[in-house]
Amino acid sequence: MTLLEQIGSDVKDAMRAKEESTLSTLRMLKSALKNKEIDLIRPLTEVEVLDVIKSQAKQLKEAIDQFEAGGRSDLAESNKIELEVLKKYMPAELSDADLEAVVKDTLAQSGVSSKADMGKAMGFVMKAVAGRADGTRVKSLVEKMLSMFIFAVLVNTMVVSSAHAEIGTVTLPEFGTYSYLPYLEMGIRLVRVMFLFAGLFSIMEILRGGVEMTVGSVRDAVRDKAEHKIITGFMNIGVVVALFCVTTVVLKQLG
User: Fold this and answer.
1) Burial class, 24, CB count within 10 angstroms (exposed 0-12 / middle 13-18 / buried 19+)
2) What mean pLDDT value characterizes the chain?
3) Strand, coil or helix: what is 170?
4) How far apart are CA 84 and CA 62, in angstroms?
5) What is the pLDDT of residues 123-148, one digit of tens each?
6) Which band of pLDDT confidence, cut at 50, 70 and 90, is reported for residue 95?
7) Which homologous superfamily does the CATH classification assign to the domain defined by 3-87?
8) Quick one: which H or E segment has residue 175?
9) Among 209, 200, 195, which Cα is nearest to 250's?
10) How would DSSP label each residue in 66-124?
11) In terms of Cα–Cα distance, which of 211, 204, 210 is closest to 236?
12) 168 with 179: CB under 8 angstroms?
C-alpha cells in the first residue's frame, strides 16, 4: 500500500471513528498533497509525498515552538496531537549512534573529505538518510566528521605516518584510505602566490628606500633608515626566491 493509499484509508477510518482531530489533520494533509500535484501537473511519487508530509510536520513544529514561547499551551498541545498523526507516515528517526554510522559510511564511500565539498557531502548523506533525520542534525554531524578527518590527516601526516608511506595518501582507521594530494597541491600553489606578493612588497620597500635616500641624503637618520629598507628588501627577496624554488620543485615531484 502506497502512502497516498494509506492516508486515504486512514481518512475513512477517522470518519467512521469520529476522530475529529485526526480527520482534520489528514484532510489538511490531503489538501497539501493535492496542491503539490497541481503544481507538478502529475501524480506524486512516494518520495514527493513524504516530502510534503515532512514539510507539514516542520510547520507544526515551528508553530508549537511559537505557541509555547507565547504561553499558549492549549494551542501547542493541539498542534502536538496533529504532529503525532503525521509522524505515523514518516520513517522512524535515526538515533545519534545510527546517524553517525550512516554519515561515516557515506563519506567514506563518496570520498568527500573536505569542507570545501560540504554541499556534495550533504547531498550524499541526505540521500542515504532518506528522511530519517532532520537536516540540521545531519549538517552538524557532517561538519563534525569533516573537521575530524582534517585533524586526523594532520596528525597522521605529521606524527604517525611511516617514512615509506605514499605521499598524498593516508589510511585512517575511522575513515578508510583517502588521497589528499589535490588539496596538498592547492595549498602549495596558494603559498607560492603569497611568496609572489611578499616579493613584490620587498621590491616596493627597496624602491621606497632608494627614494628616501635620494631625498633625505643630507640627514643621516633618514639615510640610515633608507639603507636599512634597501638591505632588508634584498634579503627578503633572496628568501622568497629560495622558497619559491623549493615549492616549485615539490610541485613537480607531486605531479
Assistant:
1) middle
2) 79
3) strand
4) 14
5) 888 888 877 787 788 888 888 877 76
6) confident
7) Uncharacterised protein YqeY/AIM41, N-terminal domain (1.10.1510.10)
8) none
9) 195
10) HHHHTT-HHHHHHHHHHHHHHHTTSPPPPPHHHHHHHHHHHHHHHT--SGGGHHHHHHH
11) 204
12) yes
Distance CA 45, CA 37 (A): 10
What's the CA gap between 150 and 174, in Å, rounded?
12
What is the SS3 assignment for 231? helix
Whether the CB-CB separation of 151 and 172 falls below 8 Å is answered with no
Q: Which amino acid is at 224?
A: D
Confidence of residue 7 (pLDDT cuts 50, 70, 90): very high
Cβ atoms within 10 A of the Cβ of 141, count? Answer: 19
Is 86 in contact with 26 (CB distance < 8 Å)? Answer: no
User: Which amino acid makes up residue 95?
Assistant: S
CB neighbour burial string for 153-166, b if at least 16 within 10 angstroms, e if fewer:
beebeeeebeeeee
Query: Rounded CA gap, 99 and 88, in Å?
Result: 20
pLDDT in tens, 68-79: 998 888 899 999
pLDDT at residue 139, rounded to an integer: 87
Q: Give the dihedral sign, CA 196/202/205/207.
A: negative
Q: Round to whole Å and give the CA distance between 206 and 200.
A: 10
Q: Which triple of cell numbers denotes residue 184? A: 596538498
- Which residue type does 138 have? V
What are 61's three cell numbers? Answer: 513544529
d(CA 134, CA 131): 7
Q: What pLDDT sits at residue 160?
A: 46
Cα-Cα-Cα-Cα dihedral sign, residues 155, 160, 162, 165: negative
Cell numbers for 131, please give them: 528522511
